[in-house]
Amino acid sequence: MSSIIPSATISATSTKPATHAMQDPCMSSLPEHPKISSSLVGQKSVPASSRPQTTTTCSAPTLNCETIENKIRKNIQRSWRGILKVCKEKDVSKLGEIPVAEFLDIAEKFNLDLGEGEIKQITTKYDLKKNGRFAYYDFLQSCVLLLKPQESSLLQRVIIQKPQKPLSPGPQTTPFFSAMLRIQPQILHCWRPMKRTFKSYDESHTGLLHVADFRQVLHEYSINLTEEELFNILEYYDKTLSSKISYNDFLRAFIQ
């Protein structure tokens, strides 16, 4: 599922720009310039061409686990409920994260079939706080929910049309992921007739429904959200507080 969402956030990780001045790690390998003695003032400077040159490259490779996640996606989608249950049992403080070592035990238990290098990449990506803990909600939502826009090839059949206006989502919180993951099995079972029902309520053909109508359609398909779950879903899909929700954006999160 912040933004099972739970932004997650990520994400699915985003890189935020630093908000305060930090020392450039590349500068740590450069020698310090000696202070110029006052006795040397007035002497000729050494030509730049004769000075020793120091070439330093310091760039961290971008971590991309898309190939690994695509490899295990089907396996995750079959067993994510069991994985989530075990993770929650180990997450005593309910922070949406568990020690990396415990996640590795879970991955082995559910036969995720990850190599040593793949495990290192996955655990590095989802160690969001760099504290040796694995953000399992972010990992599961990335493999189960489709909360990020993906480019589709010209040959790919479009199941659900993209909105005319691009979605500007709200925060992907753990409660949001939890709500989306809970209703995912029901949505997959009935999304086609549900889509037709959404359209029948959308008389102006805007792709948007009032919250009351949106909730009524879910209720017709025996999907009953608690007030808290509805709030967390609206916080993501109705960031501007328009009291309307794009039902295509909502369904697209479950259809991959």
TrEMBL record:
Residues 36-57 have a biased composition (Polar residues). Gene3D superfamilies: EF-hand. Residues 194-254 form the EF-hand domain. GO terms for cellular component: nucleoplasm. Residues 1-19 have a biased composition (Low complexity). Pfam families: EF-hand_7. It comes from the Eukaryota. Residues 1-57 are annotated as: Disordered. One of its GO terms (molecular function) is calcium ion binding. This is EFCB6 protein. It comes from Himantopus himantopus. The gene is Efcab6.
